[in-house]
Amino acid sequence: MTHAIVARQAGGPEVLEYADVDRPIPGPGQLLVKVAAAGVNFIDTYKRSGVYKVPYPFTPGSEAAGTVEEVGEGVTAFVSGDRVATAEGHDCYAGYALVDADKALPVPDGLDDFTAAALPLQGLTAHYLINSTFKVEAGHNVLLHAGAGGVGLLLIQLLKAKGARVLTTVSTDEKEQLAREAGADHVLRYEGFPHHVRELTNGKGVDVVYDGVGRDTFDGSLSSLRVRGMLALFGAASGPVPPVDPQRLNAGGSLFLTRPTMGHYLRDEAERRWRSDEIFAAAAGGSLKVRIGARYPLSQAGQAHRDLEGRKTTGKVLLVP
Ligand code: NDP
To answer: What architecture is the 2-120+266-319 domain classified under in CATH?
Structure first.
């Protein structure tokens, strides 16, 4: 037996029950991983609340790191005892999780288990957003929202490493401090941010906005772009954006709008390894700092969701079985 978080219906954080469950058995091509820590991500809250449909009973979690305990038939790339992480797992809020071997990332020696669990999903996301969704180059002006969040703190550092000028929004003084320490050039509050962005770019607007906040920031994000700038709407922490009239992109200056998701930027082994090798190497080498803002026992998954949705967290949130 082991423990897992189980939801039997959609709802608030209270639907996340801590339950005894059977230890899973790895099928062909799978690894059984003893979870050292599972990452909490906003998408877990969308699935819990019913914004995204899932089958029940449902165990959240697509991110974890730990040690391979057993390998399924046909697995040759990993053996028992290997340390792995994943951003594409299933049912990771648990003591043991099954991970498809082709989606398992080897963890380098220089990275501890908690950092390895904290990095994959938000790190791969930050990587694809700035290297592939919009290829950021030195001198670009970039606006990103929620700069002290999990994706936000990683984005700021990776953008600064590319030589971009980084503008970011946050809601509190503590978060402002964290965004500054990560390297942001200008830290704004949400109130009136498009106006401040114009001022800071001599009226021109930014080359790209990375917006994971969604409903509350979408209009302001569009108004912050330069002519032919791009809005990468990659999440909806404040709620989903209502339907948009494409004519607004014309009026805004022949703008580009995209709604990217991680799976489409990890299309094969080569792409997955390119991105994960770069972010793991940066973290292991110390150039990319991974802030673990909070660690909760697995049994407290509901509280972790409450705090993430309540804007109380910074950096990464982990669950420890
Ligand atoms: P964060 O740690 O960034 O937490 C969300 C932050 O959003 C909050 O801390 C808060 O920061 C800000 N926020 C603004 N308005 C609200 C609101 N009304 N309710 C809650 N939070 C709000 O989370 P993650 O780093 O895990 O994820 C950030 C976004 O990225 C999410 O939308 C997520 O879905 C998305 N994402 C998308 C992926 C993709 O591939 N498309 C992959 C990974 C994440 P503040 O208080 O400073 O405003």
So the answer is: Alpha-Beta Complex (3.90)
Q: Cβ < 6 Å from ligand 1: which residues? A: 41-43, 121-122, 125, 146, 148-152, 170-171, 175, 212-213, 216, 234-238, 260-262, 308-309, 311, 313
> Is the whole model's pTM more than 0.90, yes or no?
yes
Among 84, 77, 66, residue whose Cα is nearest residue 2: 66
Q: List pLDDT tens digits, range 189-247.
A: 999 999 999 999 999 999 999 999 999 999 999 999 999 999 999 999 999 999 999 99
Phi, psi of 276 (to 5 degrees): -70, -35
Question: Tell me, what's the pLDDT at 277?
Answer: 96
CATH number of the structural domain 134-259 = 3.40.50.720
Distance 40 CA to ligand 1 centre (A): 11
Expressed in angstroms and rounded, the spacing between residue 178 Cα and the centre of ligand 1 is: 15
- Ligand 1 centroid from CA 127, angstroms: 16
